[in-house]
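We store chain and fold; example below:
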Amino acid sequence: MVSAVRRGISMRQVAKQFKVSLSVLQYWVRRAGKTRLDRVDFSNHRCGPHRPANRTPEPMEDLILRVRQQLKEHSDLGEYGARAIADALRSHGIEASPTVRTIGRILERRGALDGTKRVRRRPPPKGWYLPEVAAGGTELDQFDVVSGLVIKQGPEVEVLTAISLHGGFSEAWPQCAITGAFVREALVSHWKQVGLPGYAQFDNDTRFQGPHQHPDVMGSVMRLCLSLGVIPVFAPVQETGFQAAIESFNGRWQAKVWTRFQHESLQALQGQSSRYIRAVQKRAVVRLESAPHRHSFPVNWQWKPNIRPHGKLLFLRRTSERGAATLLGHPFVVDALWPHRLVRAEVDLDEATIRFYALRRRDPAHQPLLNQVPYVLPLKRGENE
């Protein structure tokens, strides 16, 4: 580079040719000066001393390590940290001993700390608890309800929200009250627009799952999903991570729509929410193109609540201390050697069977079958086969 500059080529051209910044080239030209190139020291070493002037002398560091070992083996208190070492040095008459923070840094630099740093593991893939979703073979739609919003001098507001896991296609429906009937209408309208996913995930709200006071209850939202060939999935109670996508969208909606503006009425809130949703959907177009394929909404489909449901529904649960899991109002023994662990319960209504699979975030691809129990959904009054 310096030779090229001395031949009369401009510095900018030389910097571009050797793919370095102009300041770097100017540094080396200034450092070479007018000296012959074979006599120029081009080694890239630091200008300062090899050892910092204010660093603790090595004999003192060795003494600190010896004192730590003595305290670890013979101290009555059993303490041998930086503060205990500083106290021991002062008790031995060493007034010019390093401070507690310096002793801590010396211990860390010399590898004399017993504590281990937290191991950061890679997060599992999206939808890891559903192998088909994790592999990108099908889409998962998540739904939730935001409640506790009150318009000033107006009604209380609830918002039904939705987002697709892979495509990021989101939607929000602000209403005075979210009921099971409104959830069904919103799901049908949404899926007619974007197509049917393979799975639809909900929390354990009674508007999604149905009342909890009776066993073997299947809510209307569950029946709607099964009639359309969509597998409903219910997230585990009080578990983080499974609803992360929809909870993150709920937070963004509240920050960008609810708290950003002062809404005079429910209609004004709905209008502002619609504008925000259109902008979010427009930004997610590129992401939607790489999302899994959705099935078309059936043309002649009709909602028939009295038809006996068929297909599968999934429950994500954490087992008890005895390795049991509760779903559909019944406790089921999963595995006594799998206590306080996550499981995926697949309720196959056609085969009258519940299969329990083990789930581990550390090894998301390994989901062995733990147990299989018979289960027959009782026939509801007025229900047709």
